Amino acid sequence: MKLTRIFDILTVQVEKNPIKKCLSMKKNGEWEATSTHEFLNKANQISSAFLELGVKPQDKIALITSANRTEWSIVDIGILQFGGITVPLYPTISSADYEYILNHSESTYCIVSDKEIFHKVSSIKNKLPNAYFLP
pTM surpassing 0.70? Predict the structure, then answer.
């Protein structure tokens, strides 16, 4: 397989040299590892979910996380696989900054890592005409 896209690296890794501990993060004080196979499967699920929602290539998906998380990498690859564009945002900016960036980036969805960020983004949802909010 010829590598032409960044997410192709993961597919080749799974096929030629799978890794049991591709990514690791601490959860409840314990290290939790994700294998390349799990990484690829979860990224594929993310891609499929977005496609089922009607998201199209070149659509922008904002991604906000308050800490280094395995899920950030999985969601990023999932977005890239269907041709979406990841819009990474800092978790510490204000609601006004989120409003400006989400509107100007034309993000249709915003994935957040925790309640604090969710509340910040939810507080401006009426000011985001291009965004879809899922319950």
Answer: yes
